[in-house]
Every structure is written in structure tokens, then in C-alpha cells.
Amino acid sequence: MTEKDRTLVISPNWIGDAVMAQPLLRLLKQAHPERAIDVLAPPQVVPVWRRIQEADDILVTPFRHRALQLGERWRYARILKERGYSDAYVLPNTLKYALIPWLARIPRRVGYKGEMRYGMVNVMHHDDKPRRSMVPFYAALAREPEVPLPGKLVRPYLVVGGEETEQVGKRFGVDLSRPLVAFAPGAEFGIAKRWPPAYYGALAAKVVDAVPGVQVVLLGSPNDRETCDQVVRHVAGAAGAAVRNLAGQTSLDDAIALLARASAVVSNDSGLLHIASALNRPVVALYGSTDPDYAPPLSEVARTVSLRLACSPCRKRECPLGHHDCMNKMSVERVWSELVPILVPVKGSAARA
């Protein structure tokens, strides 16, 4: 491989956004199949990039969150310069990430206008369609500014090996020969995105009652542990024995492996939702303070629940009106009605087993 034969992609910081950037890499590979793509990513999203086939090498950012660290960026840019890049795609809209390819003297630096990045980004895109969904937002960077994307984009796609899933299942005592339904009751952005734990508990009881031998696993980060504990406490009767809280026990790698085998996933608008969608799992996605048109699930079987109240989407971390109606008024029966059609074939296979 000769000098300037590589592409650098600077990853978003959020898990869901990293998932939704995968079609961009697919387009870049189609345009230059001979060119390796390196991804510069913060540690929390590296497990996602490891499951993206178009990413040839993943470089982990050494920078602290929200810190400029100009000297550290200068030193790291010198390392990148030695790797030889012909172009760079800066997905975060901040000035500090645009500094890196500029300092590394990468000739072609592509991104959106963002924070005063003229000169640092020299192929400048402008978002003339506010709040368009994230997949075409990122994918548009593969074309010259103002050149439309061709046709319908393929959904994001992640790959997980069967052996990895088997190992993770054994480690956490999840019997992969039995039906597996995953809930993701948390959301790192804030509580406004979260459906009440009591509702998740009631929904879990319905799933256990409807599907023989089912296992319901609750997934999330350590920050979601207490929320998931509340879910378990709200599962009535004997059904609680079939519900396991794995939030904070599994790494993101582990959670991805388990989601790959889930028969159904119920999730708030979170990174785990978009991972499940990119693994093509059947999902029921719950939206309150965020816009389902902005970051929808794109799996083949995807059901979206949003009350679309006059006050939503507010895109706030906490309800500015104090009532959280967008989630509190989303009934268990409403979500159950979307989940039942997904569970019908699961129930049938469980009964045959």
C-alpha cells in the first residue's frame, strides 16, 4: 500500500450515532475498495466499530471528554501523519475533532460546518434539512456537497460471530436454546427518554406468561443498574424468576453478543436500540422526548411507539413541564400490542421445543 492510500473516519461519541455511521463507510468502500479505512474512536464506542466490517483498523482516542488538550492533539496528529491518509471524515461537529486531521496535514478533510471549522474542514457540507435522520446525514459525506445520495440507503449492519455469543451466554448463564427477550430500560442521555420501570416490569410479566421457557434479560450500563433493579421489583409473582438484571455486569461487547441472539428487543431510544436494529433483531422502540423520525430503528421487523404529544419531542434530558406525559401516558397495553405479533413465532417455536 502506497502513501496516501488510507482514509480516516473520526467517530461520533455516542453509541447509536456510531452505529448509524456504518452506511457511510460502506459507501466509502464502494468508491475506493482498495483503500483501507481507519476509525478514530473514543473507548466507549470501540465495541461497535469492531463489528463493522468496513473498518480496517480502529484507533482509540487518548483524549479526555470535553477537554481541548491542544498539545495532546498535536502529538497525536503527528502519529496520524506518519500513517499516510488521503482524506478524513470528521463526524463530530466540534472544533476540537476537526483540529486533528488539519494538524496531521491530511489533504482532504470532509465534514459539516459545525463550530467555526472553515479551513480545518476544506470540503464543507451544510445541513439544509434540519433534523433529518442520522443515517443519510452521515452518509451524505461520501458525496460532494450538494450531490444527492443515490436511491434508498441500506440500513446499518453489524456482524457478531456465533462462537462469541455462545461464550457470552455460558458466562452469564443465559441458555441460548431457550427464547430470549431483551429489554433496555435505560438511556444515557437522561431520564426523559425512559419508559417507567414499573411499566417494563408489567411488560416482562406478560412476556413470561405468554412465551413458555422465555428468558427476559435487562441490559444496560452500570448507570442503568438501579433502573433495572426497579424493573425486577415490579415483576409480579413467579414471573420474576425468569427476569434477570444484567445491567452493569455485561460489557458493551457482551451486550452486543446477547442482543445478536434475542428473539425480540424492547428499548428506549438508546445505543442498545440501534445496536439491536443493526443486528436485524425484531425491535419495539419507545420514543418520548426524542423524535422517532430522527433516529428510527431500521431492522426488518421494527415497531415504533410514540404518542407524538404537542410537547414532544422536546429533546430535553428531563421533562421541562414536570409531568413526563410522553412516557407516563404510554400504556403497557399499547406497547404489548406492538410486541405480541413479534412474539407469536417465538411462542410457537418454544412450544414445539
TrEMBL record:
Gene Ontology terms for molecular function: ADP-heptose-lipopolysaccharide heptosyltransferase activity
GO CC, any one term: cytosol
Protein keywords: Glycosyltransferase, Transferase
SUPFAM superfamilies: UDP-Glycosyltransferase/glycogen phosphorylase (SSF53756)
Enzymatic reactions: an L-alpha-D-Hep-(1->5)-[alpha-Kdo-(2->4)]-alpha-Kdo-(2->6)-lipid A + ADP-L-glycero-beta-D-manno-heptose = an L-alpha-D-Hep-(1->3)-L-alpha-D-Hep-(1->5)-[alpha-Kdo-(2->4)]-alpha-Kdo-(2->6)-lipid A + ADP + H(+)
EC number: 2.4.99.24
GO process terms (BP): lipopolysaccharide core region biosynthetic process
UniProt keyword Transferase present: yes
Pfam families noted in UniProt: Glyco_transf_9 (PF01075)
Classification via Gene3D superfamilies: Glycogen Phosphorylase B
Alphabetical list of InterPro entries matching this protein: Glyco_trans_9 (IPR002201), LPS_LOS_Heptosyltrfase (IPR051199), RfaF (IPR011910)
PANTHER family linked to this entry: ADP-HEPTOSE--LPS HEPTOSYLTRANSFERASE 2, TETRAACYLDISACCHARIDE 4'-KINASE-RELATED
Record-linked NCBIfam families: heptsyl_trn_II
Family assignment from sequence similarity: Belongs to the glycosyltransferase 9 family.
Name of the featured protein: lipopolysaccharide heptosyltransferase II
Species for this entry: Massilia cellulosiltytica
